[in-house]
Amino acid sequence: MDILEFSDIMAEVKGSMTSGRLKLTDQNIIFKNSKTGKVEQILADDVELANYQRFVGFFGIRLFMKNGNLHRYTGFKSGDEEKISKFFKTTYNKDCLEKELSLKGWNWGTVHFTGSVLSFDCDKKTSFEIPLQHVSQCTTGKNEVTIEFHQNDDAPVSLMEMRMHIPASESSEIEPVDAFYQNVMKQASVISVSGDAIAIFREIQCLTPRGRYDIKIFQTFFQLHGKTFDYKIPMSTVLRLFLLPHKDNRQMFFVLSLDPPIKQGQTRYHYLVLLFSMEEETSIELPFTDTELKEKYEDKLTKDLSGPVYEVLGKVMKVLINRKLTGPGSFVGHTGTPAIGCSFKAAAGLLYPLERGFMYVHKPPIHIRFEEIASVNFARSGGSTRSFDFEIELKSNTVHTFSSIEKEEYSKLFDFINAKKIHVKNTGKNDKSSYKDDFGDSDNENEPDAYLARVKAEAKERDSDDDGGDSDESTDEDFNPGEQNDDDVAEEFDSNVSTSDSDEEGGSDNKASEKKKEKKKERKEKKRDKKEPSESKSKKSKSKRVEGQPKRAQTAFLIFINEKREQIKNENPGIKVTEISKKGGEMWRELKDKSEWEQKANKDKERYADEMKKFKGSSTSGGEKSSPAKRKHESPGTNKGGFKSKEYISDDDSSDSDTKGSKKKVAKVQDKNDKSSKSSKKSSKDDDDDDEEEEEDDDEEEESTGEDSD
C-alpha cells in the first residue's frame, strides 16, 4: 500500500492556517491538528478535483469535494508536487494539475458559485476563493451585500466582513443582490432555530460558564438558554465528550471540548463543564420514527430514554455528534476513585489520568494528550513530605504544575506513568526513585529517616575516601602554629617589654598596631562564619573533638548499612556510592525482624556509656590541662617574670620607681592581651574606650611614681 506522509503542513481552518500532519493513503486523506489533536479524514472517493497552486517559496494543494466543500493545504516544498501528482494519478486515478491565480490585483471581476465555494475571478483566472461554510451571516442593501465570517481565535488577524457592490440588471427577473444573497445563504453556516428541539433538559448546573441553563438539542446544534446569556453551539465544534465521576461518588462531571470556543464578552470558554447529581433521573421521548432510528442512527438510540440525567444527556450527545464518550481509565487512586485531588495555581480541582491523556477539572479545565507531553516530574510541595507536586512539561515548553497531591497517591501515579511509557524527568538526587525514601512516614519512630541516613552515609564515605580514616588534623584557620598568626601572637605577648623613653613615646603606635591585629582577627572570624553550613559544622566537630574521647554509639540502621555494604556492592556491580545507602534503606524497610540490629545498637550504647564514664573519670583525676591554643594565648611573662595580675604588682615593695612603673605597664599589657584572646568579637568602640581609660590610668600612675621618687 502506497502512503505519502508530510509533516509541518498548514490546513485552512476558518481563515487561519493551522499546522499539523498530512497523510495520504489509498483510501483516505488524513490531517491531524498538532494543537488540538483533531483528526479530519477525507475519503478518496469523495474527491472530485485536485489541483496544486504555487505560492511564495512553497506550494499547496486544493481538493474540491463532490459535496461542494473545499479543502486547502499548504507548506509543501519544491519537489513534492511531482510525488503528489504521481500519487494521485496512480492511486486515485485523478490528474493533479496546476491552477493559476490572477495577479492583476483588480477590485472588479466576476463571481461564480460552485458547490459551497464562492470564486472571484479576474480575467478568467481566480483571484480568491471563499468557502461559504466560514460565513456566519449575510445582509443586503440596495446594491450591496455584506458577508460576515466566523472568527478563529488562533488567527492573529481575522477577516471580519467583506462588502461587494453588485450593479443592477434590467434583463433578469430576480435582482442580482437577492440572487447573490440566496446563493450565499444556501451554503453558509448560519444557525437558525427551525423546528422543535429533539430533547430539552431543564435547569442544568454549569460550572463553566457559571450558571444554570436549559439545554435544547437540535439536529445540527444545541442551545444553552440562561437568564442572562444564550449560546448556540454547532455540533461540528464539539471535539470530545468526557463523563467523569466526582471523587465523592455522589456527583458526575460531563465535559464538552469545543473548537472554536464560545465567547462571553472577551472571555472564551474552550470547555463546557456540567455537574449532575447521580440521584437525579429523567425520562424523555425522542421525536423519531423507528425507521429513522434504524437507518439514520443505526439503532444506537431508542424512542424512549430514561435513567440518570447525565446518562441520558451523554447518550443523546454521543449519537448526534458522533463522538466517543470518554470515561475514566484503569487508574484507581488510594481512595478507590479515578480522581486525584490537587490544586492548579490558586484553585482546587481533580486530575483524571485517562487512557490517552490527563483531564483536569474544573478551574480552568485542562486536557493534556500523552503525545503532547515531553516529560513529567515529581517535585516537593513547599518542602513538605506530606504532599508533592506533579509537573507536566509539554513539547511546546509549557509546564502545567498540579500541586498539593497527597503522598499516598505517589506510588499509584508513578506506576501509571511507567505503564504509559511517559518520560520521567531526571533530576539527579531528587529523582523519582528516591521519592519513596523521601516520603517516609515521619510519624513512625521505628522507621529511619532515609534522607538523613543517606546524607550521613555520603558524608562518611567522602571522609573515608579523602582522609583514609579519622583525622586529628585541626582545621581552625584562626590558629595555625608556625605561620604568620604564630608570629603575631608572639609579638602581642612579648614579655621583654622595653621601658625606655622611646618605647613610652611610641605607645600610641603600639596601640594602633594592636587595633589592626584585632580587626584582622575579626575579619577572619566573619569569613569563617560565612562558610557553608555543612563545612562549618564538620570543621567545628573536628576542632572540638578531644583526643581519647570514645566514639559515639551507632543506631541500628547504621550498623545494618555498614554490615550490608559489601553485600550490596557485590550484588550490584558498578553501583554508585550515593546509591548504596538508598539500596540499604530499601532493604531496611523490607526487613520485618529488626531485633538483631536493635540489640547490637543497645550494646553499642552501653559500650559508649561505659567508655564515657572512664574518659570523664580520667580527665577529672588528671586535672584540668590547658589546651595548646590556651597556652599559646597565655603571656610568656607569666612563667618568666612570675607576676600574674595587677593586684600582685601593686603590692610589690620595690622602691625603684622605674622598675615599678615598667612592671605595672607590663602587667597592663598582659591583662589587655588576656582579655582580647578571651573575647575576640569585642566591638572597636569598646576597644577605643578601654584604650582611653588605660591612658588615663597610665598618666595617674606616672604621676604617682614621680611623687614617690621625689
Task: Summarize the helices and strands and which ones pair or pack.
Layout lengths: L3 E10 L2 E9 L3 E6 L5 E5 L3 E8 L4 E7 L4 E7 L3 H13 L3 E3 L11 E5 L2 E6 L2 E7 L3 E6 L3 E6 L11 E5 L10 H12 L11 E10 L2 E7 L3 E5 L4 E5 L3 E8 L5 E14 L2 E11 L3 E5 L4 H6 L8 E5 H13 L3 E2 L13 E5 L2 E7 L3 E5 L4 E4 L3 E9 L2 E11 L4 E8 L3 H10 L15 H4 L11 H18 L16 H9 L8 H5 L1 H23 L3 H12 L11 H16 L5 H14 L4 H27 L6 H6 L2 H5 L5 H5 L6 H22 L5 H26 L1
Parallel strand pairs: 5-8, 19-24
Antiparallel strand pairs: 1-2, 1-7, 2-3, 3-4, 5-6, 6-7, 9-10, 10-11, 12-13, 13-14, 15-16, 15-21, 16-17, 17-18, 19-20, 20-21, 22-23, 25-26, 25-31, 26-27, 27-28, 29-30, 30-31
Give a written overview of the molecule.
The protein contains 19 helices and 31 strands. It is α+β, with helices and mostly antiparallel strands. The protein has an 8-stranded mixed beta sheet, covered by helices on one side. The longest helix is centred in the C-terminal third of the chain and has 27 residues, at 595-621.
Q: Percent of residues in helical segments? A: 25-40%
Taken as a percent bin, the fraction of beta residues is 25-35%
The N- and C-terminal alpha carbons lie at a distance of 129 Å
Q: Which regions have little confidence, pLDDT < 50, spanning 5+ residues?
A: 427-447, 468-506, 534-543, 623-670, 675-685, 692-696, 700-710
Task: Work out the oligomeric state of the chains in this entry.
Answer: single chain
Features:
single chain; 710 residues; 8-stranded mixed sheet; 31 strands; 30% strand
